[in-house]
Amino acid sequence: MELCTHNLGYPRIGPNRELKRALESYWKGDSTLEALLQTAAELRRQAWTRQKAAGIRWIPTGDFSLYDHVLDTAALVGAVPSRFGSVGEEVSVDQFFAMARGLLEREHEHGSRGIPPMEMTKWFDTNYHYIVPELKPAQTFRLSSRKPFTEFLEARQSGFPAKPVLLGPISFLRLSKMEGNEDAASLLPALLPVYQEILRKFDELGCEWIQIDEPALVLDLSPSFQHALTVAYSGLRSSAPRLKLLLATYFGPLRDNLETVFSLPVDAVHWDATRGGAELDSVLAAVPTGMILSLGIVDGRNVWRNNFSESLRSIEQALAVLGRDRLWIAPSCSLLHVPVSLEGEKRLDPEFRSWLAFAYEKLHEVVDLARLAVQDPASLSTLEENRRIQDARRRSGRVHDPAVARRVAAVGPLDLQRTSPYPTRKKAQRSRNPLPLLPTTTIGSFPQTPEVRKARARWRTGGLTTEQYDSFLEGEIRRVIALQEDVDLDVLVHGEFERNDMVEYFGEQLAGFAFTEGGWVQSYGSRCTKPPIIFGDVSRPKPMTVRWSQFAQSLTKKPVKGMLTGPITILQWSFVRDDQPRSVTARQIALAIRDEVADLEKAGLSVIQIDEPALREGLPLRRADWPDYLTWSVEAFRLSSSIAADGTAIHTHMCYSEFNDIIDAIAALDADVISIESSRSNMELLRAFAHFRYPNEIGPGVWDIHSPRIPSVEEIAERIRRALAVLPASALWVNPDCGLKTRNLAEVVPSLRHMVEAAKRVRKELEAKRESTS
Ligand SMILES: Nc1nc2c(c(=O)[nH]1)N[C@@H](CNc1ccc(C(=O)N[C@@H](CCC(=O)N[C@@H](CCC(=O)N[C@@H](CCC(=O)O)C(=O)O)C(=O)O)C(=O)O)cc1)CN2
Ligand code: MET
Ligand SMILES: [Zn+2]
């Protein structure tokens, strides 16, 4: 018999983003709740059918979500902030969506100002966003959803071997936001009884295995959380004596949590062998007699075909210690983070395609490995084939480009440094482009209207010629340049209409990158991205953005900002090579962006923005690993930007970030101007910059673009004044929090007018003050 297999989670969005369409149509009011739930049920059944067909023994249930699994968990335990109303027997679907998306004024029955949604943040080091549970010190919990049970029964009644999945209590608390920043671990005594009740119910239903996800175990845990962990699992164990508990950890090695994890009273531990590999010996030494180890050997975070020979080495080592009955095979983590299947990819080159495995194909790898582990003769051909493919990839001419290797090797310290220090550069920049105090600008994108997306879709499918599409884009650029001049912004942008996405667009044009037709991955709620795949040495065959920036600049006398995505963000939001360190790939991308910076400069652009919104989320999960990452990522940014002459202003932009703990690294980027998101925290974020005496210019966001609300002039002026309280006026810019691509023009035009008006109002106040003191 082959080794036992299981899966931790499957993509929810559907093979053709069916869930996205169903959700958006329901939200718009174009379809009923029944229709949405029907689509959701069909997608679940389809996912289970596929997993069973692949040969997986235990199939996850409850991993599906209409929006996000952390929000599901908050609903499950009744952690519903009071602004969303009281909870009846169950959290309703509309209450659930209100928590995720907020309610607009007109949707809100009690009138007033609408209700802000809960916050959203990155799920560990992925590009998936979860909804942050909001807890308070006296928080109470109550079982408030039947979802886990319904989905379990739905699967079992249809004959699927179901294994329910829950986000565990420790991770739930650790990922929550506690009012007053108190320690959320203190809520365990209140929360634990609800988890116990859930386990008891599953036990009563005759459920055999339950998977409890505790990815927080790969983070640095405070003593209070370490203690809570032990308390939680002995409590869970005693609540359901027959139910078998599988504790799942993933996304990194366990390090100082390793001993504790294997001493918990659970029946099995799932461990991520792709990220924790070096720990295998310690793990095998720590697994107590009688406990099962689930080996997460197929990488759920990447799209490469598994290297069977390498995996079998680890599997054999584990088998020797544990024997066949105590070793399971699985993907490293939920398959949520990879595209659904390769089947839809008709245009990929066959050789390249053979190097890949998406979610569905990964399940086959799990099953193949479980068979190969016991030398099942029927599986031996899969090993042969796998060896052939790995060899071909290793030797492939399309992976290695000697010119790139030479160029990377030749990078020296001077390539990482602008010609002059910032004060000299600022003089050169201002004499080239005189700007008023508190200059105004935007972050880059203007609304990506359905017309823009439709035009691109028609061009892709041949309905528009390239000429027609290009002239459509030029028309859009003309419109936004005229708009920005009319509004009287100081530094203009071209609007990014040519981009489907700020990373995918560059991936499509760089050598060493491949892109898919339908490789969608959920980003948050109904929103998806199609991460490009970096398979080889990266270079830039020809200019990527110059024509659009140059065209925009030709339409106006005001400076236009060239607009690029930085090397770390491109790296972080792509699937990366697994055959060289990320730092090397980052350097290669940096050199390609550097070439683009040089060409934008030659084309006459005097301001160039290099976006790095993913710099913060790329931080390793453990603090001990931060310095190394920050060194090479800062170097990559500097390599991409330092080619610029003193008189060219380099801007950068970051959003969704907490900056306090990486402020040194941000300063080390040495961008002339950084724009950051800050209006949601009411400029609190700026404290780090003020405290640190950030040396260059800063544009704190003064308009929250995540909300459709149009901010008033006075409200924006007040935010500028708050910024002025901690930063010198000479260093301050005025801009929104982020790009405007997800907004519509009806919101954008008045908001921009208010922003410029507010900047002018505060400028006058500053001038008046200056006169009165001189
Ligand atoms: N890569 C990446 N990661 C990121 C971000 C980001 O901007 N990029 N931002 C943060 C996350 N924020 C996000 C914000 C919005 C969307 C988003 O809106 N995604 C779009 C897809 C954007 C896209 O690539 N669109 C394609 C169109 C693909 C498409 O659906 N076309 C239609 C046809 C178009 C039509 O007729 O309307 C179809 O195929 O059916 C394009 O513009 O070309 C979506 O889910 O709807 C995603 C992430 C963090 N991570
Ligand atoms: C997620 S950061 C986005 C920056 C980009 N330049 C934009 O405006 O859309
Ligand atoms: Zn942004």
Automatic annotation (TrEMBL):
Gene3D superfamilies: 3.20.20.210. GO terms for molecular function: 5-methyltetrahydropteroyltriglutamate-homocysteine S-methyltransferase activity; zinc ion binding. Binds 1 zinc ion per subunit. Binds 2 Zn(2+) ions per subunit. Residues 438-760 form the Cobalamin-independent methionine synthase MetE C-terminal/archaeal domain. The active site is at residue 706. Residues 5-319 form the Cobalamin-independent methionine synthase MetE N-terminal domain. L-methionine binds at residues 443-445, 496, 611. It catalyses: 5-methyltetrahydropteroyltri-L-glutamate + L-homocysteine = tetrahydropteroyltri-L-glutamate + L-methionine. Residues 419-452 are annotated as: Disordered. Zn(2+) binds at residues 653, 655, 677, 738. Its EC number is 2.1.1.14. Zn(2+) 1 binds at residues 653, 655, 677, 738. Catalyzes the transfer of a methyl group from 5-methyltetrahydrofolate to homocysteine resulting in methionine formation. This is 5-methyltetrahydropteroyltriglutamate--homocysteine methyltransferase. The lineage of its organism: Bacteria, Pseudomonadati, Verrucomicrobiota, Methylacidimicrobium.
